[in-house]
Input
Amino acid sequence: MNHSEIVSFLWGVADLIRDTFKRGKYQDVILPLTVLRRLDCVLADTKQRVLKRQAELRGKGLEDLDAQLKRASGFAFYNTSRYDFEKLLNDAPHLAANLRNYIAGFSQNMREVLERFDFDNTISKLDEAGLLFRVLERFKNVDLHPDKVDNPTMGTIFEELIRKFNEALNEHPGEHFTPRDVVHLMVDLMLAGDADRIRRKGIVCTVYDPCCGSGGMLTIAKEHITSGLRKNGEPLRSAINPHAEIHLFGQEVNPETWAVSKSDFFMKDPTGRDADTIAFGSTLSNDRHAGRTFDYLIANPPYGKDWKRDEDAVRAEHERGVSGRFGPGLPRISDGQILFLLHMLAHAKEPKEDGSRIAIIMNGSPLFTGDAGSGESEIRRFILEHDLLEALIALPEQLFYNTGIATYVWVVTNRKARARKVKVQLIDATSFWAPMRKSLGDKRRVIPLDRAQDILKILADFRDGDTRRIAKDGTEEEVVVSRIFPATHFGFRKITVERPLRLNFQASPERIARIEEERGFQALAQSKKKGAAGAKEQAEGRALQEKIRALVEGLPNSLVKDRDQFEQLLDTAVDKAGLHLPAPARKAILSALSERDETAAICRDKGGNPEPDPELRDTESVPLPAGDDAVDAEVVPASVRAFFDREVRRHVPDAWIDTSRRDDKDGRVGIVGYEINFNRYFYRYAPPRPLEEIEADIRAIESDIVRMLAEVTGSKAPP
Output
């Protein structure tokens, strides 16, 4: 059987257990038994040797047998139970107890893996339902021996099963299995330009995935370097360096997926070295590889998923600034994918140690979400101002199984080639796909090898305005697929533009009536005190309200366009009435009797400065210049002053820049922000269809409707 047939055969267990287990719980049965069956087949050739060696060593009175039994098994794990799947089924009445004995016979390191499945409860449930024998028999009938199913194929089987479980659970779009075509492309992008480095004699490379799932990205990265690219066992591309020593590291938060990954690495590597470095736990709140740095880092983090469960630890580390992983900023709580990029940057090697390369795939949110000064913008600012972003590649939609949304690969490195310094390459690969013969969930497209190689060529050529012929709607057209910009191109300085407050005043009946709605006026008849004291205060307030009503009704009804002049009229009336007017009540009178008026005099504060009108307040985003940007005496950058004079002041001469709003990092007027509006740089204008064509289509549709109605009613359709 090929891998698809094996997956279908194993998934067929669902037919046996559907009345006992809910659809979302199928994985509790299928996944651990798939692992157990694979372990059973892998150890089959050396099982008797292990049992014999155990008996010999115990006969000599030895207790610590671990190292000797690992050597006997040929792997970094073993099983000392006398049972295997065949012998378990031969003793059906005691199957549950014997299966537990079989699991307990594994070495300690493998038992720790299997315990993450919480399989003991599943055994009890299957046994009580009378299904344990039938389920185990089905797994016994599939041969997962390495001679029949090699390690790469077994990895694919695990990933296919996990994909099916995610579909059954209707998981969040961020909880998805990464298709192999996407993984191969990401690995190539991560390794791009490093072939000579990897071919060095005696090279040792470390590869790290902080959310490694079942380990597919790590496995494929190692295969690309040491084995090359294969399809159905046939070589498509030779290895970069078959003799390179590749050490894999990973971390996974889901216990079942971690168990699959760890057990798979134990079976792939007899030394158990890679399995030992696949850690369990939340990467954001419990970094199990703290202090380590890596040559290559790759990830497909969950996107659109909140980080509430990690919030306390993440915020505490953010407060540590540069000594923590999240010093540059924190995104909104609802989406933590970009935190994984910060985490990966914290694990990158220093440039003096030959640096690192990173490939991470995310949706569009980290490109532009968040205004200037927000956590997301500050993270983008850190990456771009430190010249870490080498390229962004927009992938086709409908590549993933659980979601059809647009995704982008970020290629990040701290050892850019000289020609790429302070530049960012954008590659539009949204048209680099082919349709699948059969859709799998939301996945309807695949990136063929030739298109993936073309993406790598565009990256390597590093040409602004590079084009390709793209087929669209039955025709081919030449389109730009590569743009190159300086890193500052994506930056801007957000300034606040103020305009003066201009009010007129009038004691008209309509405006006087508005006083009753002012909170400062209403508060006069309210009291926080209780009892007699409160009642007295309320009565005094109501009396003052009456006096204020009489006061404003006695003011002139003429329109006054100068606030200072009107305040003099009001003060004169207050003095004449002998009133003590509280500040909130005075403010309520001025608010009720005023209206905005562009022809009125400017309202000024006590220092004679114009007061800003909050309703006319606006912001402008000023592009960051590529070079130096001198500041004036008010710390306003020259680029901001020139933009303001050119784009604002000539239209509204009374406007000014609020110089109190300054950037926390450079201290200059205006808040610095960064965003990458990817689609803007590859927009192609498509003219609307001629009106005549649209009108003809409408008439044709109308004719069809009339004809169908005539068929329904039996009447004759008009010619």
Summary: Residues 512 and 549 are 8 Å apart (CA to CA).
